[in-house]
Write a structure and sequence with these properties.
heterodimer; A: 292 residues; mainly alpha; 10 helices; 72% helix; B: 641 residues; two-stranded antiparallel ribbon; two-stranded antiparallel sheet; 2% strand
Chain lengths: 292, 641
């Protein structure tokens, strides 16, 4: 049932996540700049950006667009709150894909060529990572016998010991989820490319700011799931979780800077193979172990 | 009214209705009136019977008809009639192979009945909770489709002047179908189930061939031979039960733990069920069924025909646990779920996408039933319920859109939300109902996933997660097409008649209501089924906390658009054209090319045909699953004999 503690945790997430997410986004930019031998923007540049976007005049292509973007933000926040409040992992991922569909619909509704191309690609990206997100929930269930985040954080042994294959698969699909190169098919960080800004081409001003904020929430949620692999009943495990998140986040930025964008077919084949090989094998082994 | 009379009424009255409709050749208001009044009478009777059974608390009391001399002879005569009909039509259209299969399925059963080798003296009807739930599906969804059809067929012949108007024949076939459905659900006697089984096969064959074009004839015969082949399997199982095991009733099969040979008829019935519910390798008949007018697709795909197959499988589920048959059935089902969802990506014909999605969902139900666990059956029944409602709504909406726009291609539904807002909204709810949290189908998928994980079926888990990915892709891109807002586009005339709205609105409402009602449904409809099948209950598959969170999500989904309207979000923003690299030509549908000419601009959806296309994937899937089916039949049936 819903308790006061859960509501407090959810509220904490709602207040703190944009701060953490914005800082992570700023860190990402600083890292990238250093890797490319530039000085880069200040750490809190994302906050300046969003602040500026919020104060610009918003132009829209149609009025439904705004609605979809708003629903996208609300449901992304809701999903994260559900996770950090200790809810059901499967429900978290179902709600997450629902919120993503809303962003895709916002792009579809514009009828702009770049937006729609981005939307189709984003749907394909979702098709690529959806199996893995569901498998992560199943993996935790195999490891610790519950789908509830609240129970999973009281594990005796960190989940990574039992489901390393799932961890590899999840880190891999994080590249797609966070739209990092080589899988940044649906949108890019730079304007001068064949798909312009893809998914968000026809969003501007306040609407674009909402999408940025939703992405901050999303990053924190994803890092939370990475941390889940390391959390146990022992409070010190939090340190390990944070270290793991930092390593994963740095790795994602590094890969982002190393590889060029791939074609969608390559993405589909590579992702599904990685999921099948790592998570699938892991699942088989766990199942065999469970029988004895 | 007493339940036995009601059951008789439900089985016989649709046949009376069929006769009444058949004599009214013209699409007059009197005919529509007959359909609506008669239809609602059947619906009322079905709901009354179902509620009575559900509320009774003890369903073992509803067993009827031990003496059955007259009905048995009627049924025998009916079987001969069906056989003769098939033979006649096969000769007429020169498809002689159908005769062989029909004879092979009917003659041995007749011989058994006539020589008195059949087991006598058991009850023929049994109305338990599962039958009551099926009554609700057939009675409510099936009848709504019939009412929809009465208006639809008028418009259909308005547009298709090349097709001879035999709508009286078509509509009466639909009622015959419903009568057979009620008969099948109520029967416990295997030979009676077989008879009704054959009626539905022949009926669907006649409906698919309605237009009498070459394509329709070919497809109808494909449906016929596949279903008759399944019928042969059923007949073999029936004879084995009667002559070798001394069993005449389905309930004896499902409760028989005594005989180790019980797995033979179970396998044969499961094989028959695979053909009926269009699993690979028998999926092609369902795809071919699209040539018929939309109401028949809606009837075959959602509430009746394909549901018979999974109905049988769910009935057999307890006996299949931990047997090779069960494992093979789950693998075939899981494989069908995944493969059909990939194939659904590659087609743009709206009805074909729906057909593939039907096959895919039935695969999931089959897989759930095959696990033979309590959770699996829970998920399977939930899926049957949600699928019947959502799919019939989607078919009806596609039919209406086709009548308004003369196309049912998804590409032509570009900007539907502007062109036909009312139908577009209904369609959006229908599509969301099929795949999105927190709507119905997702609840069942969730339960299915849990049951697969608990029963340790790794392959099924993999099929399910990958299948969910592709399912999401094909529904979401359709949703996107509908939601595209085109500037300077005009609303088309919505010519959907009122009689169709009588059917569409209740179905839409049901999708929304079922989101809230599923915990109640679980407690009052599905747990009793588990009680009957396993003498056992399960704890809530979806916990109370999750249910509350889902409710919050549903409420949010409906409140946000309303709230946005009141708060006038986005109303103050400046309107602009969508970005076309700065070369718009006045609207967002044209651009200026490098020669200064104006060109049309259109973004089509992705179909990835060279990747998962029907040409590439369909036949390998069919061969693969044929091997699976053969292995199942040879190892289980051959091994035990």
């Amino acid at each position: 049932m819903i308790t006061l503690e859960m509501i407090l945790k959810a509220l904490l997430y709602i207040i703190l996540a944009p701060v953490v997410g914005g800082l992570l986004s700023g860190m990402d930019r600083v890292f990238s700049a250093r890797m490319q031998g530039r000085v880069g923007p200040p750490l809190i540049q994302p906050f300046y950006d969003v602040n500026k976007l919020l104060h610009k005049q918003t132009t829209v292509v149609n009025s439904i667009q705004v609605l979809f973007v708003t629903v996208y933000l609300i449901f992304t926040v809701f999903t994260g709150a559900l996770f950090f409040a200790g809810g059901d992992m499967l429900l978290v991922f179902f709600a997450l894909s629902m919120s993503e569909v809303m962003l895709v619909l916002a792009a579809f509704s514009t009828n702009g060529p770049y937006s729609i191309m981005g939307a189709q690609r984003e749907l394909l990206q979702m098709m690529c990572y959806e199996p893995m997100t569901l498998l992560v929930a199943i993996g935790f269930y195999y490891a610790n016998g519950s789908f509830m985040v609240d129970d999973l954080i009281h594990a005796q042994v960190p989940a990574i010991a039992q489901i390393p294959g799932f961890f590899i698969g999840f880190v891999f699909i994080l590249l797609i989820k966070l739209r990092k190169s080589p899988f940044d098919l649906s949108t890019s960080h730079h304007m001068h490319q064949e798909m312009v800004k893809g998914l968000t081409t026809d969003l501007s001003g306040r609407n674009l700011a909402l999408v940025e904020i939703a992405e901050w929430y999303d990053v924190v949620l994803m890092m939370g799931i990475v941390g889940m692999f390391f959390i146990t009943e022992n409070p010190i495990s939090v340190v390990w979780a944070i270290i793991a998140c930092a390593v994963v986040f740095f790795l994602e930025t590094l890969i982002d800077n190393l590889f060029p964008r791939v074609k969608y077919k390559t993405m589909l084949i590579v992702t599904w193979s990685v999921i099948l090989v790592f998570a699938g094998t892991n699942l088989l082994i766990l199942n065999v172990l469970k029988m004895f | 009214m007493a339940i036995p009379n009601l059951v008789n009424f439900l089985i016989l009255f649709p046949f009376v209705m069929a006769a009444l409709i058949f004599i009214q050749r013209e699409a007059t208001p009197v005919r529509s009136f007959t359909i609506i009044v008669g239809g609602f009478a059947i619906m009322g009777a079905a709901i009354y019977a179902a509620v009575n059974v559900l509320m009774s608390g003890d369903t073992s009391q509803f067993m009827y008809l031990e003496e059955s001399f007259v009905p048995d002879h009627v049924i025998m005569a009916g079987e001969v009639f069906l056989m003769c009909l098939v033979c006649f039509l096969s000769i007429k259209y020169k498809k002689y192979y159908a005769i062989l299969i029909s004879l092979a399925g009917t003659i041995p059963v007749l011989w058994m009945d006539l020589t008195g080798k059949a087991v006598e003296g058991n009850t023929h009807f049994r109305i338990d909770t599962f039958a009551a739930v099926m009554y609700l599906i057939v009675g409510v969804v099936g009848i709504l489709i019939c009412i929809y059809a009465s208006g639809y067929m008028k418009d259909y012949h308005h547009h298709h002047t090349d097709v001879l108007d035999r709508s009286n024949y078509f509509l009466s076939l639909m009622f015959v179908f419903l009568g057979a459905m009620f008969g099948l659900i109520s029967s416990d006697s295997l030979s009676w189930i077989y008879f009704f089984w054959e009626i539905t096969s022949v009926c669907s064959f006649l409906m698919i061939g309605y237009t009498r074009t070459q394509e329709a004839v070919d497809n109808s015969f494909r449906a016929l031979w596949m279903n008759l082949l399944g019928g042969c399997g059923f007949a073999a199982g029936l004879m084995y039960c009667n002559m070798a095991l001394g069993i005449s009733n389905l309930s004896q099969v499902t409760s028989a733990v005594s005989s180790e040979f019980i797995i033979i008829p179970v396998t044969l019935f499961a094989f028959a069920a695979l053909t009926k519910s269009a699993q690979f390798p028998f999926s092609r008949w369902l795809l071919g069924a699209m040539v018929a007018p939309t109401p028949s697709s809606a009837l075959l795909h959602s509430a009746t025909m394909v549901k018979i197959g999974v109905y049988m499988l769910i009935r057999l589920s307890p006996v299949m646990e931990n047997t090779l048959t069960g494992i093979m059935i789950t693998v075939i089902g899981g494989f069908t779920f995944f493969a059909a969802s990939l194939l659904a990506i590659t087609v743009s014909d709206g009805k074909k996408v729906l057909a593939y999605s039907t096959i895919s969902n039935l695969g999931l139900i089959t897989a759930c039933a095959g696990t033979g666990t309590r959770e699996g059956v829970w998920a399977a029944v939930m899926l049957v319920l949600f699928h019947a409602v959502s799919k019939s709504l989607l078919f009806q909406t596609v039919g209406d859109i086709e009548n308004c726009m003369h196309s049912r291609d998804i590409e032509d539904m570009h900007g539907l939300i502007i062109k036909l807002p009312r139908l577009a909204f209904i369609m959006i709810i229908g599509i969301c109902g099929m795949f999105m949290a927190p709507f119905g189908m997702l609840v069942s998928k969730w339960a299915a996933l849990k049951s697969f994980v608990d029963s340790g079926s790794v392959w099924l888990v993999l099929f399910l997660v990958f299948g969910s990915g592709s399912t999401l892709f094909y529904w979401a891109k359709w949703l996107g097409k509908i939601c595209t807002v085109i500037h300077q586009s005009f609303e088309l005339e919505d010519i959907t008649p009122k009689s169709e709205m009588v059917s569409i609105f209740p179905l839409t409402a049901m999708i929304v209501i079922m989101c809230f009602a599923f915990p109640w449904m679980s407690g009052h409809m599905i747990q009793p089924i588990l009680n009957e099948a396993f003498n056992d209950n399960i704890p809530d598959v979806i916990g109370r906390g999750d249910v509350i969170i889902m409710m919050i999500m549903v409420i949010m989904i409906f409140l946000i658009p309303v709230g946005a309207r009141f708060l006038s979000i986005g109303k103050n923003s400046k309107m602009t054209m969508s970005y076309v690299a700065g070369v718009n030509a006045g609207d967002d549908r044209h651009y200026i090319d490098s020669f200064g000419r104006e060109r049309a601009l259109y973004m089509s959806n992705w179909y990835m045909e060279d990747f998962f296309g029907e040409k590439k994937l369909l036949w390998p899937c069919i061969w693969f699953s044929t091997v699976l089916v053969l292995v199942m039949l040879i190892v289980v049936v051959g091994g035990a004999l």
